[in-house]
Design brief:
There is one protein chain. This protein is of the alpha/beta class. The protein has a single domain, classed as UDP N-Acetylglucosamine Acyltransferase, domain 1. Helix content is 26%, strand content 24%. It contains four helices and 17 strands. The chain has helices at residues 2-14, 19-28, 33-45, 55-68, and strands spanning 72-73, 78-79, 84-86, 92-93, 98-99, 104-106, 110-112, 114-117, 123-126, 129-130, 135-136, 141-143, 147-148, 153-154, 159-160, 168-171, 176-180. Strands 3-6-11-14-16-17 form a six-stranded mixed β-sheet. A five-stranded parallel β-sheet has the order 1-4-7-12-15, with no helix packed on it. It has a four-stranded parallel β-sheet with strand order 2-5-10-13, with no helix packed on it. A hairpin with a 5-residue loop joins strand 8 (114-117) and strand 9. The protein is globular, with a radius of gyration of 17 Å. The relative contact order is 0.13. The mean pLDDT is 93.
Length: 192
């Protein structure tokens, strides 16, 4: 349920949850506002009946929130609870990407699609999957049908086009594993 995910997002921001913290974050935190508006859009989009009329104003609110935070962040992206956006400037998340729980994304991160031509001539469009407890550093670029394994860290400026095993640190262009069996870096992990 989207409310549980919003509670987890709030927990990541403040180390505890209350509806007062949701309101406070919505008003005062430029990078938390898009997370709240995304969760509201997703909650209303799954409803039927009278609630559906609220989707258009919420989508406008989300557009304003992402614009003021200088990010391209679709409300339709599938994201687990406990998302933390740090700084946010220049963040680009394709709506086809899938993001797990307790994930941290820094400014300038790009989670983008990659189109490939298969041997039979058909076009394949692929999107990244970010598993739980992943930390993605500033200006990292992750494209295509890659999976970033649970608990991994992607160093700032890394260009990732290949899947990353769980609990690994990758760095560089192209990204290469620089450490294995690392400890996940999740500040205020939401109890999910």
């Amino acid at each position: 349920m989207k409310w549980d995910e919003l509670k987890a997002d709030t927990y990541r921001q403040y180390g505890k949850f209350s509806w007062g913290h949701v309101v406070k974050g919505m008003v005062l935190r430029r990078t938390f506002r898009p997370v709240v508006t995304m969760r509201l859009c997703q909650a209303v989009a799954t409803r039927r009946g009278a609630y559906r009329f609220m989707l258009l104003p919420l989508k406008v609110m989300h557009r304003i929130a992402t614009h003021s935070a200088a990010m391209d962040f679709s409300w339709q992206t599938k994201i687990g609870g406990g998302l933390a956006l740090t700084h946010g400037w220049g963040l680009v998340v394709n709506q086809g990407a899938v993001i797990g729980r307790n994930v941290t994304l820094f400014h300038g991160v790009t989670l983008g699609q990659r189109d490939r031509i298969a041997p039979d001539g058909t076009r394949l469009t692929e999107y990244p999957v970010i598993e739980d407890d992943v930390w993605v550093g500033p200006n990292a670029i992750i494209v295509g049908g890659v999976t970033i394994g649970r608990g991994s860290r992607v160093a700032g400026g890394a260009f990732v086009t290949e899947s990353v095993p769980a609990y690994s640190v990758v760095a560089g262009n192209p990204a290469a594993i620089v450490k294995e069996n690392c400890t996940p870096d999740v500040m205020n992990p939401a109890p999910l």
